[in-house]
Design goal:
Shape: globular
CATH architecture: 3-Layer(aba) Sandwich
Number of strands: 10
Distance between the termini: 81 Å
Structural class: alpha/beta
Number of helices: 10
CATH superfamily: Alpha/Beta hydrolase fold, catalytic domain
Helix content: 25-40%
Oligomer: single chain
Strand content: 15-25%
Order of helices and strands: EEEEEHEHEHHEHHHEHEHH
């Protein structure tokens, strides 16, 4: 059973609104659960469609300049704090914990329904569409969901116009042994039997230190929702992630155009340094380059020099390029270009026009 509240003032961002989806019982035993849809206060004068943005792990929506960018491009902007994340997490719940990424389909579909009604989104080929943006873990959740919509819910899939993936998590970072069948089997075994067991490896605070205004960065956000050193990682959650990786790497068909943005390099360290500011300090960008082609549909993949893990929180030159890439893709990447070969073939098969001399 799912219910939603009316729009209320957002608890984190002044002038923004939020709408809570009450999702009821939690399949993972931490009931009751909810998800929160956030709406930007500014509305485009002439809307081209809407954007639904999905955060990553140890994350929630706080990035107002991102919303303002999409509104300036002519899109209504919405973001979703998933169950047990950010605004949606309730007392006693394990942050971000799910044992199957498909569980998120409930709140994602609810969000699509609300956005479609408010923003005039339709299934027709010329109707405005929803562009799904997603970061990191959200960049794994989103294409898996859109692929399921294509197979199981064609009506909602017809409302989706494209994907923008910001440093998507498409494989497990670290040494090759971490991706071996033996380690994967261990993760799955412990994940099934003792899902809430914490992985012994702690996350580095280097990335958080590079972006938060209290340390070396310029961005202000709620560290209760997004701790600098990250939330503990549970075996049951990593099992869900590895299952998602396996599905994606076997090949999806999202059947919409995709834009993948990432840094041109990764740099992993236990502590912050200036190198952290100009690289992905969380994930391995070579995995993004390798597996992006498994999304299906038309793909544009762009390495952004010196970008951080969240390309839209990068140092200014990289951030500006990331926005420019999105702007160009929105203008030209959502509809297939006219194939030159097809045009030449059509011209070659068209009978020549006969000129009749006057008599």
């Amino acid at each position: 059973m799912t219910e939603s509240t009316d729009w209320q003032p957002d608890t984190e961002l002044p002038l923004y609104s939020q709408r809570v989806f009450e999702l009821g019982a939690d399949p993972d035993g931490e009931s009751p659960i909810a998800a929160t849809l956030i709406r930007a206060p500014k509305r485009p004068r002439s809307a081209k469609g809407a954007v639904l943005y999905i955060h990553g792990f140890t994350d929630y929506f706080f990035h107002e300049p991102l919303a303002e960018f999409f509104v300036a491009q002519g899109y209504h902007f919405y973001a979703l704090d998933l169950r047990k994340c950010g605004r949606s997490r309730r007392a006693g719940q394990t942050a971000h914990y799910v044992t199957d990424l498909s569980l998120y389909d409930v709140e994602l579909s609810l969000a699509v329904d609300v956005i479609a009604e408010e923003a005039g989104i339709g299934p027709g080929p010329d109707d405005p569409k929803i562009i799904v943006g997603a970061h990191s873990t959200g960049g794994l959740i989103a294409p898996l969901w859109v692929d399921r919509l294509r197979r199981l819910d064609s009506t909602r899939h017809g409302l989706i116009g494209g994907l923008i993936l910001n440093s998507p998590w498409l494989d497990l970072q670290g040494r090759a042994a971490m991706r071996s069948p033996a380690v994967t089997a261990l993760i799955r075994g412990v994940g099934i039997t003792r899902g809430l067991t914490v992985l012994p490896q702690e996350l580095s605070p280097a990335y958080g230190d590079s972006i938060h205004e209290s340390r070396h960065g310029q961005w202000k956000y709620n560290v209760d929702f997004k701790p600098l050193g990250g939330f503990p990682v549970m075996f049951g959650w990593v099992r869900a992630i590895r299952n998602g990786h396996a599905l994606l790497q076997a090949g999806l068909d999202v059947a919409v155009p995709s834009l993948v943005l990432r840094s041109d390099k990764s740099y992993f360290a236990k502590q912050y340094s200036s190198r952290t500011d100009r690289a992905d300090a969380v994930l391995d960008v070579s995995h993004m380059a390798r597996w992006a082609g498994c999304l299906g549909g038309r793909l544009t993949s762009v390495p952004v020099p010196d970008a951080r893990h969240d390309v839209f929180l990068s140092v200014a030159p990289a951030r500006e390029q990331a926005y420019a890439e999105v702007e160009a893709w929105l203008a030209t990447g959502l509809r297939p270009p006219v194939a030159k070969a097809a045009a030449k073939k059509a011209a070659a098969t068209t009978p020549p026009t006969k000129t009749i001399a006057p008599v």
